[in-house]
Design brief:
The complex is a heterodimer. In chain A, about 30% of the residues are buried. Chain A has a domain of about 70 residues. Chain A is built from 7 helices and 1 strand. By secondary structure, chain B is α/β, with parallel strands linked by helices. Chain B folds into 2 domains: about 170 residues, FAD/NAD(P)-binding domain; about 150 residues, FAD/NAD(P)-binding domain (3-Layer(bba) Sandwich), CATH 3.50.50.60. A 5-stranded parallel sheet of chain B has the order 5-2-1-9-20, with helices on one face. In chain B, strand 7 and strand 8 form a beta hairpin. In chain B, about 45% of the residues are buried. Classes of the chains: A mainly alpha, B alpha/beta.
Chain lengths: ~110, ~350
Amino acid sequence: MDFGFSLSPSSAVNLDNTDMSLYERLCEREPGAKTCMACGSCSATCTVSAINGMSVRKVILGLQRGQFRDVEKMLSRCMLCGKCTMVCPRGINTRHLILELCRLYGSKEGEL
Amino acid sequence: MTMDRKIVIIGGGIAGMETAACLRDLGWTPVIVEQSSALGGHVAEWNCLFPDLAPAGKLVDSLRAKVEGIEIHLDTVIAAINYLRKGYSLVLSDGTKLQSDAVVFATGFSLFRAEKKEEYGYGIYDHVISNKDLELWFNTGSDERVPDNPKAVGFVHCVGSRDIKAGNTQCSKVCCITAIKQAIEFKEKFPKAEVYCFYMDLRLFGRKYEDFYIHAQKDMGIHFIRGRVSEVSETIDGRVFVKAEDTLSGKPLRVSLDLLVLMAGIVCNRDNDRLAQAVSLPLDEDGFFRSRDNVSQLTLSDKPGVFFAGTCTGPKTIPETLAEARSAALAVNEYLKTLK
């Protein structure tokens, strides 16, 4: 039946049931991920960010909030140019981070 | 010039003690007037100090040793101060009269009363405590509000600080680093607990502070969430339910915790009003004492013979307070030398 309106699902993040397992596996492979302070240098300098919304900052945050689908979409847009690694003030190897994450998404180990 | 000139120091916290010790070293006769029953002020109630986790008790003990032999009035407040032609005449609450050539205000700060932020539920819910309560718990291990095996704990930054409605525009300066220190200590005690810090900005200005933050992130796995906690409620099983915005993702965020620690800020000592009036000194809008100059003359007031040391002129760290206390002692020394 059409009531002329629909309910949208809540966009709230509930940390009580957020799945952090992928984030934790990534941190084992690239511990630098934990030191992100969300400055946004990576996104600002990203070659494709302005075109398709890729952002390493958002990738890390998305993993911390259990939003795997959004992260996956962003990963496919990365060109692995490595400019983000150059500008990261915390020295996070963001290119390696993205690569490892792609591996986790692609492998059974990282099964979602 | 006579060297038996007397200086009354109001407040026996770390600023008052350090000023007194320096003035005695310079050859003068300091007197400490302290309203509580022991020297040490807020620091005496603390457990460990950032950024090296040095025991607070050790610092307080060393300062107490430095002021041994100095005339100290405990459990005493200033009943009246009068400016006479030759210095100040003070009457203490126990009736003692003191003549002094200079007065140093080392009256410190008050910790913001967390129950004023009613939406955080301090004094209402079973598992909401303040930063000071946690330090006391580190000291004594006894506080019914701290659960035995917490799975999740949250730290709320800026409680009463940067809050115009709470009457305090100022940043308390030390809470960010204190929250990180306490989060690390808590995680060390309960390695399996998830620890969340809710912040607006992280203001880690001091040497080693940023390293401490990186340590908290990288080695301790503490989660930092940018967003001010908007409200706290209690769940049916007695846990604490917290609402905030995850401002980095722009989404509302919810989490239930076993313990919530409120980082109560540094606010002006409410007694400042009375003391300022007694010597006709103006207070700043934020209730702290006004220095003659906020860059180069922090320890000087607008009155001859009245000086400031420590947090009575605004939030400060312990090293800053101690350095300022020494600076105040030198300023007093200069002033006394000009008296005939």
